[in-house]
Write a structure and sequence with these properties.
Chain lengths: 287, 206
């Protein structure tokens, strides 16, 4: 392996390699995968001069620490967290020059859930179906990071972009999820749809990259029984028999047999990736 | 044909039968290949539906669909994929009991059936194969196995499937194959893609 690589000093709770995913293969049972907070992933790449499709690291809650083998420009975005280089404070949301052999530490998220770490040149693991994204449902792509693992980096693309201001949403006191009803809203009573649009839900600790699970009042069904398996889009609000909606995130199954009461457009999904368990959730009916 | 909106950019087209789903799916692929379909990110056939996702104007396509003439599915000119099977699955006797025949007759009927891949899901490369007549449909196991070995040939409901990798599963296991169902370095990665015809060829058990 060349010197363009880093070794994992502290893998954190769950750190995965992510990019823009592998769309276009759902008919083969292959989930989209890719960065859950896509704007944060794109921004991190821009800050180090990468194309937005380059692979970054996505951390979960506790961050991670890495030792780079050669001097590398790194940027941390997404959930704000303390960033240090060999123990010295470094900026979050800006390009950071990390000397050869130094340890970059992205600490626990001060709020939010997932930070993104981009490295100039991107993470250069072997692509699978055109993507380096780790897909935790079907096991495609690189395994989640483990302490001591070594990951290769690509050659830097160009000078880092300069950013005047890094967009960053403040701590979310409530997750707002606008949705369009359908395709199976008819499987629910009017009361069930009313419950979805007005009920007080919270993010369940059982949430993961596959789905954001909720706790709250169960949605009343108008029809019982199973639906024949059908295609599931990103952002689907699937309702299993317990009546509690699950918002499908990037590693969701491509087909499923529970009715989808509504769909949250993709542009509203990044905040869902940053909502910690217990965050109040409000679903807003768009029409 | 009932189109149902799916979010801002999706359309779920519901049909009356698996045959109509396959015919519409084939027509969508034909039109996509001819450049006669608006750009779409995913086309996902399933049991009674086809999902189109990533459309700029789903409503425009709804209007267009009404005028489509969809030819019924023909047998197809692609040769069937042959999958050699050792009919040695732990549930072979149970399936024989459910069918009220001998295990040898299960092998004969299963290997005499021409299947085709109605849709994929569950795992990359897992195809839902239709072809068994309704009296031969069997329920899932009451208790799913925590680990079904890779290459297991299995039955559930109207479907036959082959596990592309080891995973939990509740289907009735009737045999095993060494055929590689999923290889990301192969093009296509999945051996069984929607529409593929499939035959199972009995192999001597060792």
């Amino acid at each position: 392996m060349t010197d363009r690589a880093f070794s994992v000093v502290r893998a954190g709770a769950l750190t995965t390699v992510q990019d823009l995913g592998r769309p276009g293969h759902a008919h083969l049972g292959v989930p989209r995968a890719g960065a859950l907070d896509e704007p944060a992933h794109r921004l991190a790449n821009r800050l180090v001069g990468n194309p937005e499709s380059a692979a970054t690291l996505e951390t979960t809650l506790t961050g991670c620490a890495l030792r780079v083998r050669t001097a590398t420009t790194v940027a941390v975005t997404g959930a704000p967290c303390p960033v240090t280089v060999d123990g010295r404070p470094a900026p979050w949301g800006a390009p950071v020059r990390v000397p050869a052999g130094a340890v970059l530490d992205a600490g626990p998220a001060t709020h939010g859930l997932r930070s993104h770490l981009a490295f100039a040149g991107g993470i250069d693991t072997e692509p699978v179906l055109g993507s380096r994204a780790a897909d935790l449902l079907s096991g495609l792509g690189p395994d989640p990071l483990t302490d001591g693992a070594v990951l290769p980096l690509g050659d830097p693309h160009g000078p880092p972009a300069t950013a005047d201001a890094v967009p960053h949403t403040g701590p979310a006191t409530e997750l707002l999820l606008p949705f369009l009803p359908g395709p199976r809203d008819a499987w629910f009573t009017d009361a069930g749809l009313h419950t979805l649009a007005t009920g007080r839900f919270r993010v369940s600790p059982a949430s993961n990259r596959i789905g954001l699970r909720t706790q709250g009042p169960p949605l009343e069904r108008a029809r019982t029984g199973e639906l024949p398996s059908e295609g599931m889009p990103l952002g689907a609000l699937q309702v299993p028999p317990d009546g509690l909606p699950v918002l499908f995130l990037h590693d969701h199954p491509t087909t499923g047999g529970y009715p989808v009461i509504g769909v949250v457009p993709e542009r509203y999904l990044a905040p869902a990736a940053q909502a910690v368990p217990g965050t109040p959730v409000r679903f807003l009916r768009m029409r | 044909m009932r189109p149902l909106p799916v979010g801002e950019h999706g359309l779920l087209i519901e049909l009356d039968s698996a045959e109509e789903v396959e015919a519409l799916h084939a027509e969508l692929l034909r039109r996509a290949a001819d450049g006669a379909l608006p750009p779409v990110r995913e086309i996902v056939p399933a049991a009674r539906t086809v999902l189109l996702d990533g459309l700029a104007d789903p409503r425009g396509l709804i209007a267009e669909l009404a005028a489509w003439d969809i030819p019924p599915l023909t047998a197809g000119d692609r040769p069937a994929v042959e999958i050699p099977v050792r009919y040695d699955g732990p549930d072979l006797a149970d399936v024989a009991a459910l069918w009220d025949v001998t295990p040898e007759e299960v092998v004969r009927r299963h290997s005499a059936t021409e299947f085709h891949v109605a849709f994929c899901g569950f795992a990359p490369g897992f195809g839902y194969l239709t072809g068994l007549p309704e009296p031969l449909h069997v329920p899932r196991r009451d208790t799913p196995r925590t680990k079904v070995p890779v290459g297991s040939v299995a039955l559930a409901g109207p479907y036959t499937g082959v596990y592309p990798r080891s995973s939990p599963g509740g289907w009735q296991l009737i045999g095993t194959t060494d055929t590689v169902l999923w290889d990301p370095r192969r093009e296509p990665a999945a051996l069984l893609t929607p529409g593929t015809r499939v035959r199972f060829v009995p192999q001597e058990t060792a």
